[in-house]
Design brief:
The complex is a heterodimer of chains A (368) and B (286).
Chain A lengths: L7 H27 L11 E7 L2 E6 L11 E4 L10 E3 L2 E2 H7 L4 E5 L12 H20 L4 E6 L1 H12 L4 E7 L11 H6 L4 H8 L4 H9 L3 H15 L3 H14 L7 H13 L9 E2 L2 E2 L9 E6 L7 H4 L2 H4 L5 E6 L5 H4 L1 H18 L11
Helix pairs in contact in A: 3-4, 6-10
Chain B lengths: L1 H24 L4 H26 L3 H48 L6 H19 L8 H49 L6 H20 L2 H29 L7 H33 L1
Helix pairs in contact in B: 1-2, 3-4, 4-5, 5-6, 5-7
The chains are: A alpha/beta (368), B mainly alpha (286).
């Protein structure tokens, strides 16, 4: 009699072991879930130093004497919230910047309501952003500031730097889409078929939940199944549960996007790819990337499924600056900011790059 | 006829007598009772004239002859209406018949996306027109918006069902592929002993299928159709709700949007003026 090819005995033994493990895990998990959990995010101290409509400017309280006179302004996307850069102590881009002696400001776009549906890219870039940049310049007594953009916020920063190059000393773009004529990312494929006029006309603002559903559908096997299987497997570990819930809090904290901004972003960028071709118009002015003459550091993720490398890596060759650098990290869209490995590469690289380009500036009249 | 005529003449006479006494007793009530009596007298005169004519020999023959022709007249009156109704019913029956034909043409044996497309087409060709029938009267625009919302809801439901079924396809396929793989592994004696390995294998297969699906033009088109259907239904629903809201002392979304737009434009103008003023001030200082 030949040996059975299906190891039934081993399988059954494995299953019995798994069942026993699951039972013990469930017992511990109930203890973990029922005791108080620390799931707070964005806990680094800051002051709100400027407010305009729904928009706020956060100034993070320095933990050491700033090493550079030039402040760094971080502009997040209108999709999701800037709290991602400060998820938890020990896993916070904000915290690392402060420890490195960066004078850090960050734009909090707030939660747009129906009354914000008419706000365009022009209102965000030439309105809110320009007012904030002027405020920071004046507060710090500098002519130029360093500007760092994240995702859609990076695209805004590129537009801003092209239109107001005299106010920006160094530009850092991270996972920033500028070339939309690529089939690498599913969003780029899907957006070409989307009737954005119909959506904006019916919804007013683009609902955050609807966009989140779209992002989940980019990889449902991982984001809707495997992720939660992973949670169940580790729900007996308090640290894991706390971190997991912090991430969930951030992911599903999705403000709506002002309708007209969304319309222009999809039509001019995703569908017509005007920015990289120097054909985009914002506030009646053509956005010419040749005006970006300041140093440019461009980060992107090799495994980014939202903003793939093909959407990011053309920028450095299209700007007027000769001091440019592309940095491709072996991670995804969010991993750049939250993965432990990237924490060791990302901020230190920016700090070093800025330090190399930091020069003394003649202070302008500071108001405080 | 004659007897009846005589009875009503007597009744009228006695009432006139009563009315006359009452009128002389209270002249203030003359106006109202006089109008009633006049009306009664007019009716009585018409009745007397009719009765006299009908009482003449040969008159009833004419009436009965006329009555015998009545069915023809009724039939002539009813026929066009009946024909119209019958035609409508026939058309409905034909449309219902075509439902089967349409589904057969799309072959329900292959119950995948074709079923949804078949239903969408049937709805579009056969049912939707009923919701497009022009409405009449004072409330026509409200009825039209209600029908529009019903129509858009039906389309949204169908499109969403198609989209969800499309999303389910990779799950179905992944189970099948997993089974095939396991059979192969079993034959080769390489079956994993750890249950987690089975799950990992399935998730990997599922992810692959989703990637294939998402990159297909069919998915992009279905997604676009679904988003359009959601948008259209939302717009139609808003239109209907606005109708309801206008009867309440509340501003509706259209009112608020107009207001928001005005505020937006005003703020823009103020900001531009402020900047202009600041620049002017700086120039003056220099």
């Amino acid at each position: 009699m030949g040996q059975n090819k299906i190891p039934v005995d081993l399988l059954l033994a494995g299953l019995a072991e798994d069942a026993e493990e699951a039972q013990s895990r469930a017992q511990k998990a109930s203890d973990v879930l029922l005791e108080p959990l620390d799931t707070s995010i964005a806990v680094t101290d800051y002051e709100v130093v400027y407010e305009e409509d729904r928009v706020k400017l956060k100034h993070y309280v320095p933990v050491i004497e700033p090493k550079s006179k030039t402040p760094l302004l971080v502009v997040y996307a209108l999709i999701n919230r800037e709290t991602m850069l400060d998820l938890q102590p020990g896993r916070s881009v904000v915290e690392t910047f402060l420890k490195e002696g960066i004078d850090l400001y960050m734009v909090d776009w707030g939660y747009p309501t129906r009354k914000d549906k008419f706000l365009t890219i022009d209102d965000h870039v030439n309105g809110y952003m320009d007012n904030i940049v002027d405020f920071v310049r004046q507060k710090c007594g500098v002519d130029k500031i360093n500007l760092m953009g994240i995702c859609m916020g990076g695209t805004f920063c590129v537009i801003y730097s092209a239109l107001h190059s005299e106010k920006i000393k160094n530009l850092i773009t991270t996972v920033t889409p500028t070339n939309f004529d690529t089939d690498q990312g599913l969003l780029h494929v899907w957006m070409k078929h989307t009737d954005v006029d119909r959506m904006v006309d019916s919804f007013g603002n683009m609902p955050g939940d609807m966009m989140n559903l779209g992002f989940l559908l980019l990889n449902p096997a991982r984001l809707m199944i495997d992720k939660y299987v992973g949670f169940v497997e580790n729900m007996d570990k308090k640290d894991f549960v706390e971190n997991f819930i912090r991430m969930e809090k951030w992911i599903f904290d999705s403000p709506d996007v002002p309708g007209e901004t969304f319309r222009q972003f999809i039509k001019d960028l995703y569908q017509k790819n005007l920015l990289i071709r120097n054909k985009m118009e914002v506030g009646g002015q053509r956005v010419d990337l040749n005006n970006i003459t300041m140093p440019l550091l461009n980060f992107y993720g090799h495994f980014d499924h939202l903003v793939p490398p093909g959407a990011c890596d053309l920028l450095t060759s299209k700007v007027g600056s000769r001091d440019t650098e592309d940095v491709c990290l072996q991670t995804g869209h969010i991993g750049i900011y939250v993965s432990s490995r990237c924490q060791k590469e990302f901020v230190p690289k920016i700090v070093k790059w800025l330090a190399q380009r930091d020069e003394d500036q003649e202070p302008v009249a500071a108001h405080d | 006829m004659k007897a009846s005529n005589e009875f009503w003449e007597t009744a009228l006479g006695s009432w006139q007598g009563g009315f006359g006494k009452a009128a002389s007793a209270d002249s203030s009530k003359k106006t109202s009772t006089g109008r009633a009596r006049e009306s009664w007298e007019t009716t009585a005169k018409t009745w007397r004239a009719m009765a006299t004519v009908m009482g003449e020999p040969g008159a009833m023959d004419g009436v009965f002859k006329g009555l015998s022709g009545l069915p023809d007249i009724v039939v002539k009156l009813i026929q066009p209406a009946w024909n119209g109704l019958f035609h409508l019913q026939k058309e409905w029956a034909e449309r219902a018949g075509r439902i089967g034909e349409s589904s057969a043409a799309y072959s329900f044996d292959n119950l995948d996306q074709e079923a949804f497309r078949a239903w969408t087409q049937i709805y579009d060709k056969e049912f939707r027109q009923f919701l497009k029938i022009p409405q009449l009267g004072l409330t026509r625009s409200y009825q039209e918006r209600l029908q529009e919302a019903t129509d858009k809801f039906n389309i949204f439901q169908t499109t969403m069902a198609e989209f969800v079924s499309l999303l389910y396809l990779p799950i179905e396929k992944s189970f099948k592929v997993q089974q095939d793989k396991l059979s192969e592994m079993a034959e080769a004696g390489r079956l994993p002993t750890n249950s987690k390995d089975y799950y990992k294998m399935w998730v990997k297969i599922l992810e692959g299928h989703y990637m294939n699906l998402f990159q297909s033009p069919e998915y992009a088109q279905t997604l676009a159709r679904t988003l359009n259907a959601v948008s259209d239904f939302t717009t139609a629903r808003h239109g209907m709700l606005q109708d309801a809201l206008q009867f309440l002392p509340l501003p509706n979304q259209k009112d608020m949007d107009e207001l928001y737009r005005e505020i937006y434009l005003l703020k823009k103008r103020i900001n531009a003026l402020e900047k202009k003023n600041q620049n002017q001030g700086k120039t003056d200082d220099m």
